[in-house]
Amino acid sequence: MTQNVRRGGKIWVRIFPDKPVTTRPTETSMGSRKGSPKYWVAVVKPVTHLNVADNSGARELMCIRIIGTSNRRYANIGDVIVVVIKEAVPNMPLERTEVIRAVIVRTCKELKRDNGMIIRYDDNAAVIVDQEGNPKGTRIFGAIVRELRQLNFTKIVSLAPEVL
Questions:
Q1: Percent of the chain having pLDDT more than 70?
Q2: How far apart are CA 51 and CA 60, in angstroms?
Q3: How far apart are CA 36 and CA 24, in angstroms?
Q4: Integer CA distances (angstroms), 163 to 13, 117, 129, 156, in order
Q5: Is the entire prediction scored with pTM above 0.85?
Q6: Could you give phi then psi for residue 156, rounded to 5 degrees?
Q7: pLDDT tens for residues 65-90?
Q8: 36 band by pLDDT with thresholds 50, 70 and 90
Q9: Nearest to 106 by CA among 118, 121, 119, 84
Q10: What mean pLDDT do residues 18-35 have?
């Protein structure tokens, strides 16, 4: 976790400190389109794979639609998206190929605050919610930004172990 906050610098939260910053080998050029497509994008858009930040039973999600206006291309922290479960834990209520809603809680794309602080995470992660916006899981893993409280996701903020 990197914090340069004294003069409004940036916070770079590394959720998995032992994981390398890039999963692609260093000799691969950025525009070569080699490797898995889920490592090409830093922003959340349709077909982006996300980790699950709660204990609802899913492990990996894929975004298929961004809820909001009809022509939104990208989703940011706090946006509700429609996802499909790509990988799930056995013997849990959520199953693979199930289409559900989720709230984005972490993105690799930087979040800029009004005071000049920049927050960037290692991974894209979401919390599975129901139609009312309440989380399906009972625990939240990892750090969460406090902007979710202003977006009426107070239950997610209260379950989080750390709020930045």
A1: 74
A2: 5
A3: 9
A4: 12, 15, 19, 10
A5: no
A6: -65, -45
A7: 999 878 888 999 999 999 999 999 99
A8: low
A9: 121
A10: 53
Spatial separation of the C-alpha atoms in residues 82 and 66, rounded to whole Å: 6
Q: Bridge partners of 100? A: 83
> Which positions ≥6 away from 102 have C-beta within 8 Å?
50, 61, 80, 81, 83, 126, 127, 128, 129
Taking alpha carbons only, the member of 114, 22, 100 closest to residue 65 is: 100
Residue 89 and residue 137: Cα distance in Å, rounded?
13
Residue with tokens 């922003």: 43
Predicted local distance difference test score (pLDDT) of residue 20: 59
DSSP state of 155: H
State the pairing for strand pair 118-121/80-88.
unpaired
Amino acid at site 113: R
